[in-house]
UniProtKB/TrEMBL annotation:
InterPro entries: ARM-like, CIK-Related_Protein, Kinase-like_dom_sf, Prot_kinase_dom. SMART domains: S_TKc. Belongs to the protein kinase superfamily. This is SCY1-like protein 2. GO terms for molecular function: ATP binding; protein kinase activity. Residues 65-355 form the Protein kinase domain. Pfam families: Pkinase. It comes from the Eukaryota.
Length: 500
């Protein structure tokens, strides 16, 4: 196999090209030479892999990895893995290659470009735990738009079965991903909290809440994005919010307008909107999420169909919502009322019994650990083992374990956290343990204070020796045992000699 063929198959090709792309593609023109066919094939393949990111200012700071997901209007944003060149920080790169818009009329292309710049620009200015974090603002080149965010797994739309804008083949971790009930509960609560912030603090309407604008980050947290159609209150902050509706434009492609399947009736029927309009969209999203992507009414991107379906909302009953959990059904029915004043606001919705679930509350508490005092944390960690057994394994590894490992930087908390991490170790395969747990434990092996750390390790030595590879036992576990033998604490020495 020649060098060019090997490079074509190299999984790191996008990273390679991001560093030297501009120079490579300029060489033939500058030198006025005809490169061999195999090299030209390689360059064309590389160019098609990362497309319009070539030359975008974002690639000056970030290396580009594999294409993993899609999001936004028409799923036009392709999402790539990325790494910051200076710090090696992991990010995700959202990019839109302008050639994707060639299928639209010139007027629609201009409208789409204008619209797609609004969302990332607004999101960059907003900060909240339940909004997608922008790590590098929107950059535009002749061929593309791009910006960088916290590491992303996929959009909710991707996980509900939409493959538009996805890589081919679709990553197996996406096709195999199952959204568990506890994740859906907490995810919907996270979106509700995001709306509380937008409505109460920022005095704005999101304007397009739908699955393609909900992003799951690398740890599985649900983040709201897609602010392409936000509406800011026109009143001063000290006065009640007032919003001006944007009319639906029949002569503009639906892709450049909010998703009609999640659009509140008042936008089109009475040309009014309020924060309650976002709650209607959230109700539609709740229905679609529980039903694995199936929408309550498919409006087929057609306003006439939209109006026909809206007329059926008055007859909406519990039977129509039969697939929803009992604790959610009555509230979704209120959210989908054609009368905005019937809908609960985000603050009221966040307090409904459906969200009062031990699993969802546990995930929420873990996300706020940095705000808690040590005494509160210690009580929580003591009760955590009972909850871990009730959570799905993937949720424990993806959502719980990273939060616990962050507490290893707080020595006073390690005796309370460590038993839970070792309990999770029991759930892990050897590969999962080596990849996810062992790197976090290695620094803890070296700690001798507080003495409870060594005691816990000695008591669970059988587990450590079973899971830890021989080389790591030699370099990390045995030195810990030797240090324990030299310890002054009789308890620790007794526990060392008790090891079989």
């Amino acid at each position: 196999m020649c060098f060019c063929q090997r490079l074509l198959k190299d999984k790191d090709t996008p990273t390679l090209i991001s560093r030297r792309t501009i120079y490579i593609f300029q060489v033939p023109a500058v030198l006025n030479v005809q490169l061999p066919k195999c090299i030209m094939d390689m360059l064309n393949r590389l160019k098609s892999t990362v497309g319009g990111l070539i030359g975008n200012p974002v690639t000056r700071e970030f290396d580009v990895g594999p294409h993993i997901a899609s999001a936004g209007p028409g799923h036009l944003w392709r999402i790539y893995e990325g790494t910051k060149k200076t710090t090696k920080q992991k990010v995700s790169l959202f990019y839109l290659e302008k050639k994707y818009l060639d299928k639209f009329s010139r007027k629609d292309r201009e409208k789409l470009l204008e619209t797609l710049k609004i969302g990332p620009t607004k999101l960059t200015k907003l900060r909240h735990p339940n909004l997608l974090v922008v790590e590098h603002p929107l950059e535009e080149s002749r061929e593309s738009l791009a910006f960088a965010t916290e590491p992303v797994f996929a959009s909710l739309s991707n996980l509900l079965g939409c493959r538009e804008g996805m890589p081919s083949p679709v990553p197996q971790e996406v096709t195999d991903h199952e959204l568990y009930e506890v994740e859906i509960k907490y995810g919907l609560l996270q979106l509700t909290e995001a709306l509380k912030f937008l409505h109460n603090n920022v005095k704005m309407i999101h304007g397009n809440i739908c699955p393609e604008n909900v992003i799951l980050n690398a740890n599985g947290a649900w983040k709201l994005a897609g602010f392409d159609f936000f509406i800011q209150s026109s009143n001063p902050p000290d006065q009640p919010a007032q919003f001006s509706v944007r009319e639906w434009e029949d002569d503009v492609t639906p892709v450049a307008q909010p998703n009609l399947n999640f659009f509140a009736p008042e936008y089109i029927l009475t040309l009014n909107c309020d924060t309650a309009s976002d709650l209607f969209s959230l109700g539609m999203l709740m229905y679609a999420t529980v039903n694995k992507g199936k929408v309550l009414y498919d409006n087929n991107e057609n306003v006439r169909t939209f109006k026909q379906n809206v007329s059926q909302l008055k007859a909406l009953n519990f039977t129509s919502l039969g697939s929803l959990p009992e604790g959610l059904k009555e509230y979704v029915k209120m959210l989908l009322s054609a009368t905005p004043t019937v809908r609960p606001d985000a603050d009221q919705l966040s307090k409904i019994p459906y969200f009062d679930d031990v699993g969802a509350m546990t995930l929420q508490y873990l996300d706020t650990l940095f705000q808690q005092e040590n005494i509160q944390k210690s009580k929580f960690f003591k009760g955590l083992p009972k909850i871990l057994s009730k959570l799905p394994k993937r949720v424990v590894l993806q959502r719980v374990l990273p939060c616990l490992c962050k507490e290893f930087y707080n020595p006073d908390m390690i005796p309370f956290v460590l038993p839970n991490v070792l309990l999770i170790t029991e759930m892990c395969t050897n590969e999962e343990y080596v990849r996810l747990v062992l790197p976090e434990l290695i620094p803890v092996f070296k700690l001798q204070e507080p003495v409870q750390i060594s005691l816990i390790f000695m008591q669970r030595m059988d587990l450590l020796l079973t899971k830890t590879p021989k080389e790591d036992v030699k370099h990390h576990v045995l030195p810990m045992v030797y240090r324990a033998l030299e310890a002054r604490s009789p308890q620790i020495q007794v526990s060392v000699f008790a090891i079989n």
